[in-house]
Write a structure and sequence with these properties.
The complex is a heterodimer of chains A (57) and B (251). Chain A is mainly alpha-helical. Helices cover 81% and strands 0% of the residues of chain A. Chain A has helices spanning 2-8, 14-52. The longest helix of chain A has 39 residues, at 14-52. Chain A is rod-shaped and about 60 Å long. Chain B has 251 residues and is mainly α. Chain B has eight helices and no strands. In chain B, helix 3 packs antiparallel against helix 4 and helix 3 (54-81) packs across helix 8 (196-237). The chains are: A mainly alpha (57), B mainly alpha (251). Chain A binds chain B through residues 7, 10-13, 16-17, 19-21, 23-24, 27-28, 30-32, 35-36, 38-39, 42-43, 45-46, 49-50, 52-53, and chain B through 38-39, 43, 48-50, 52-53, 56-57, 60, 95-96, 99-100, 102-103, 106-107, 110-111, 113-114, 209, 212, 215-216, 219-220, 222-223, 226-227, 229-230, 233-234, 237.
Chain lengths: 57, 251
């Protein structure tokens, strides 16, 4: 356990190191989530349109 | 091959086949990269453990530049050959490039504070990367500013091409000016000056970032093509008569 807290303290730079990794995860994870949600929404919209007008399957 | 992929139908087919592979490989590479960066890589003899910020900062900077180059080249193709997929690709990539640039700026600030004693300095490297961020924002704003997406797209493409002069300025800023930011230690004519124990985790993280970008770029292009198809279906489903007196020649 002390091993873990020693690792987590990052030699006294914990605030900066973990903030930097947090920033990267939040921004890149955020744009990944936004891209995925918009993709799902575009598929749903297309499905609905193609369901209502059965021209092309 | 490129011209075949440039056909939207072909693109949907090819990207649909590649996407599942990317979706599996990308998180794996990123997890290995994070493990190497946080557990395996040694602390720096001068910077101690704070050097671990490098593994999220430097790949973000590389991607910020690489994505901008891609946006500019695709914009050039869109302007010259009027290829619709090129413009869609550029507009799909730009928000991703802006995100990498923001990660680069913020993690750099968090690294600068303990190492240089300041969050920010108006030195050539940092200022030119901030300009890159604003170029991305300007491009995105212009592309969405006009009711007619064609006009907005062309204006944005011109901005992207003009902004390309900023790329060599960023790259060589640390050599041309006396910057607080350190000089290049990986991509050098004489080979990297960084130790293998740090270079390997850095390269794995960079590859993970690249895979993340590729995955999201494909997802975003597919989204844009889906949305375009939905608009076309909507228009053909409800045929609206052109308003009386409107000239069909007028654009």
């Amino acid at each position: 356990m002390s091993n873990f807290s020693q690792w987590a303290s990052m030699g006294g730079y914990a605030l900066f190191v973990w903030s930097a990794y947090g920033v990267a995860v939040v921004i890149l994870g955020g744009i990944a989530l936004q891209s995925w949600r918009r993709y799902r929404a575009s598929l749903r919209a297309l499905d609905k349109l193609q369901g209502s007008s059965r021209r092309r399957s | 091959m490129i011209s075949r992929l440039a056909n939207p139908t072909q693109f949907m087919k090819a990207s649909g086949a590649v996407l599942p592979l990317l979706a599996v490989a990308m998180p794996l590479v990123l997890l290995v990269g994070l493990y190497l960066a946080l557990f395996v890589a040694p602390p720096d003899y001068q910077q101690g453990e704070s050097v671990r910020i490098m593994y999220v900062h430097v790949p973000a900077a590389w991607l910020a530049l690489f994505v901008y180059l891609l946006v500019a080249v695709a914009s050039g193709v869109a302007l010259v050959w009027r290829h619709p997929l090129a413009e869609i690709a550029a507009q799909s990539a730009a928000p991703l490039g802006a995100a990498f640039t923001l990660v680069c700026l913020l993690t750099g600030s968090l690294w600068g504070r303990p190492m240089w004693g300041t969050w920010w300095a108006w030195d050539a490297r940092m200022t030119s990367v901030l300009v890159l961020f604003f170029l991305y924002l300007g491009y995105i704003a212009l592309a969405n500013a006009f009711d007619d997406p064609g006009r907005g797209g062309r204006a944005a493409s011109v901005l992207a091409l003009v902004g390309i002069v900023n790329l060599p300025i960023i790259k060589f800023s640390v050599d041309w000016w006396n910057t607080l930011h350190q000089a290049e230690s990986v991509i050098r004519m004489s080979g990297p000056t960084i130790d293998m124990s740090m270079l390997v985790p850095l390269m794995v993280m960079a590859f993970g970032y690249l895979l993340l970008f590729a995955t999201l770029l494909l997802v975003r292009i597919r989204t844009a093509l889906n949305e375009r198809r939905a608009r076309a279906l909507q228009l053909s489903a409800t045929p609206t008569p052109s308003p009386a007196g409107a000239s069909p020649v007028l654009q």
